[in-house]
UniProtKB/TrEMBL annotation:
It is found in: Cytoplasm. It catalyses: O-phospho-L-tyrosyl-[protein] + H2O = L-tyrosyl-[protein] + phosphate. Residues 5-153 form the Phosphotyrosine protein phosphatase I domain. One of its GO terms (molecular function) is acid phosphatase activity. One of its GO terms (cellular component) is cytoplasm. Gene3D superfamilies: 3.40.50.2300. It comes from Umbelopsis ramanniana AG. This is Phosphotyrosine protein phosphatase I domain-containing protein. Belongs to the low molecular weight phosphotyrosine protein phosphatase family. SMART domains: LMWPc (SM00226).
Length: 157
């Protein structure tokens, strides 16, 4: 058996995009009977604005509407995450730049855009915080496609 993977999803505040990505990915892993392939699936933010908070109610409602359970609390990315996780997948270029800046040299984590795995090529998962419900719905579709694309990248589908 190959090494178990560990994945951290990252956005700015860890209340909209990354907890949605974590929930959708974890749900897909469970639905496809791939749970034994993953040691850890988590999410975090590059900023600590919302540490300890539950996900944005619109993000949670969108997931719930699609039958995806959400169970996370916001936290900030730590230096230890770069050695704990195989993959740190972020939502936009600002997150990517912040993560590359804080990544310790020699860390094992592959840091890249989660949208790189979207088969439709929509690489940026935009922050829906200041918009309406349609932004959260759009994000849900993006993270669902990217989750499947990432599982294919790992040769698990």
């Amino acid at each position: 058996m190959s090494e178990q993977q560990s994945v951290l999803f990252v956005c700015l505040g860890n209340i909209c995009r990354s907890p949605m990505a974590e929930a959708v990915f974890a749900h897909m892993v469970k639905e496809k009977n791939l749970s034994t392939e993953f040691a850890s699936i988590d999410s975090a933010g590059t900023a600590g604005y919302h540490v300890g908070e539950k996900p944005d109610s619109r993000s949670a409602a969108t997931c719930k509407k699609h039958g995806v359970p959400v169970n996370s609390r916001a936290r900030k990315v730590s230096k230890a995450d770069f050695s704990k996780f195989n993959y740190i997948l972020c939502m936009d270029e600002s997150n990517l730049s912040d993560l590359k800046h804080m990544q310790p040299s020699g860390s094992k984590a592959v840091v890249q855009l989660f949208g790189d795995f979207d088969p439709k090529g929509e690489r940026i998962i935009r922050d829906p915080y200041y918009g309406g419900a349609e932004g959260f719905e759009h994000n849900f579709k993006q993270v669902t496609r990217a989750s499947e694309g990432f599982l294919k990248h790992l040769n698990l589908l």
